[in-house]
Amino acid sequence: MTEEGFDVAVVGSCMTDLVSQAPRLPKAGETIHGHRFFTGFGGKGANQCIQAAKLGARTAMVGKVGKDFFGDSYIQNFKDNGVNTACVFQAPDVATGAASIVVNDAGENAIVIVAGANLLLGAAELQASLPALSRTTVLLCQLEIRPECSLQALRTARQHNVKTIFNPAPAVPDLDPDFYTLSDVLCCNESEAELLTGSPVATVEDARRASGELLGRGCGAVLLTMGAQGCVVLEAKGAATHHVPAPAVTAVDTT
C-alpha cells in the first residue's frame, strides 16, 4: 500500500458481468437467439474505481471477491488498470458476485445480480483497510454491498476528514438518515431520487424539487442525473439549482 495515500478510495461491489446481446429482451418463459456473448468486469463500486483510475487518479478498491477463477481475474484486472488491490479480499467458500445481463439492439437491458462475496464485506475488512480509508482525498460508496458496511465506511471517512461521495444505488425507500448527513455529495439518478423522495422525477423541474428535498436531509450537495436530460446540481441550501444539459447520443448499452 502506497505511503502517499490515494486520490480516490472506493468501498463497494465487484461483479462479473455475463452479457448476452440479442435483438430484443425475452418474454417470461421464452428462449430467443442472441448474436453475441462476452464476460466483463462490473459492479457499481468497481466501475467507479476503474473509471477514476482511467482518469488519472491514484485509486484503491475496498471489496470482496470469491477465491475462484472470477475473483482471481477480477484482482488482476484491477492491477492491469493501476488500482491498488491491497484491500480487495477473497472469500474461500463464496462465489464472486455475478450479473447476468441481456442487452437488446436498442441498448436497453435486463439484469439479474447475485451478490455472492460482496455481502461478506464487513467491519473486519474495513478495519484492515483503515490505512487506505484514512489516507485518501475522496471516498466513494454505493448500496450494492450491505448498507451497514457502506455507512461504516462513510463514518470512518468523516472521522478522518475525507470528502465523501455517496451513490444510493440500488436505491431503497427507507434509507438510514445518516447516509445523508455523512455525504458531502449525494449523487443519484431520477429513478433513485423518485424512490427516495416518493415523488415523480420526470422533468428538470421535478429534479430541482427533488434535489432541494434531498439536500434538506443533510447532505452537502446533490447531483441528480437524468440520462438524456442531463443533470441538476444543487450545491448549498438557498442556492439556485444548476441544470447541465447532455449532448444527444445513440445509446449502445445503458448498463
Structure description:
The protein is α/β, with parallel strands linked by helices and 255 residues long. 27% of the residues lie in helices and 30% in strands. The strands form 2 sheets. A 9-stranded mixed β-sheet has the order 5-4-1-8-9-10-11-12-13, with helices on both faces. A 4-stranded mixed β-sheet has the order 3-2-6-7. The two termini are 31 Å apart.
Spatial strand arrangement across the major sheet: 5-4-1-8-9-10-11-12-13
As a whole number of angstroms, the C-alpha radius of gyration is 19 Å
Question: How much strand content do the residues show?
Answer: 25-35%
Q: What is the N-to-C succession of helices and strands?
A: EEEHEHEEEHHEHEHEHHEEE
Give the quaternary arrangement of the chains: single chain
Total DSSP E strands = 13
Brief synopsis:
By secondary structure, this protein is of the alpha/beta class. Helices cover 27% and strands 30% of the residues. Strands 5-4-1-8-9-10-11-12-13 form a nine-stranded mixed β-sheet, sandwiched between helices. Strands 3-2-6-7 form a four-stranded mixed β-sheet.
